[in-house]
Amino acid sequence: MKKADIGVVGLAVMGENLILNMESRGFTVACYNRTVSKVDSFVGGRAKGKRIIGARSVEEFCDALAKPRKAMLMIKAGQPVDDFIEQLLPHLDKGDIVIDGGNSFFGDTIRRTDYLEKKGLLYIGTGVSGGEEGALHGPSIMPGGSPEAWPHVKPILQAIAAKVADGTPCCDWVGRDGAGHYVKMVHNGIEYGDMQMIAEAYFLMKHLLGMAPAEMHEVFREWNNGELDSYLVEITGDILAYVDEETGRPMVDVILDTAGQKGTGKWTSQSALDMGTPAPTVAEAVFARFMSAIKSQRVEASKILRGPAPAYDGDKAVLIEEIRQALYASKICSYAQGFQLLKMASLEHEWDLKYGRVALLWREGCIIRAQFLERIKEAFDARPDLANLLLAPYFRDAIDRCQDAWRRVVALAVTNGIPVPAFGSALAYYDGYRSERLPANILQAQRDYFGAHTYERVDKPRGEFFHTNWTGAGGTTVSGTYVV
What we know:
By secondary structure, this protein is an alpha/beta fold.
């Protein structure tokens, strides 16, 4: 029997569809699942008659792989990945490759890469985005880990990846150890922001304009034909048109307003805090999900806490267009925050990320795929050292064009008591970034007053620190100067 080109462990939706994608590109694939009945069901069902080898033990799975063995794990992140690596180790030889295709935390991937390399094995941690459809027809793939492994898996991963118009695959080597999973994490953080901003646009149209879902469906369909062209805007339009068969009501009116999450948005926010990089829109999107989760408290609070009743008597078409512009400007700021975070992480971990290449990886196949990612690629191709996307001419001009409408929408939301945490935080980020001076001088004076934390002066070189004896009784002893 011909040995398999690659093996996949885990036969949930993503694993099965990736296997079928690989086989459709001409590869022979081995598969294994801890629950062996799933192997039998898959091989006798969707995989029947295809170049797919079902294995009923870890040993049989490894024996079915051509050397160097390439074993891709599509299993739950965390301890299950470590546990299965230990099951694989007795059956692998030096130079074999383990690939983690789940949403693993990048720090775990850094640790696992080091662990397996010390045993003579190679490791890849790769983000895979695109959901069920992407896995089957072409996802965005973001591999990182042991560089020596890339030539062995490149033909397979690039063959199954989504392609942009000129045929370039949305899959390329990202960097050492945890780089691939870090890029996927930031992708998911940006996704959180995108989804929350779209939800806020929907909420404004619902509560200020009294629009029905079917009417909003038409708006989102029109938006998707312009600069907001993206997967998430497209599917939001589809969702708004869907009618619940059981009640005959719009499906969105039947779904409870509590959102779940799997943690990658939280990881992105935590990383931004660790790196000292502002990413407020991602964080607010995470907090918005937390707020949605306390449904019973919100129901009770709605009976007690007072606020304005939403009302708008202006031109409907004008406000719809202004919401569109607010969404676009907020989206730009959200991506600017994400790419700033990538830059800081690249410096911290010495990954040498190529930001234009990252934008290309997200251009097709993934959940945040959007027309304007091509503009991001162009911006970093023109200036690889670009400090912030807001400084690129295209995005600077777009914000200039949209910001008056953006400000009116946020102000209108505030005066009508409609929460828009993503729109508002994105605008605050923009205003903060463009401010030559911020009120941090007061913060530092307060810190020096109560804790002798010192400060720098506007009339002295940066890096010189001073302390004031504010009360006359504080003395000259100062606290160490450091940034956490």
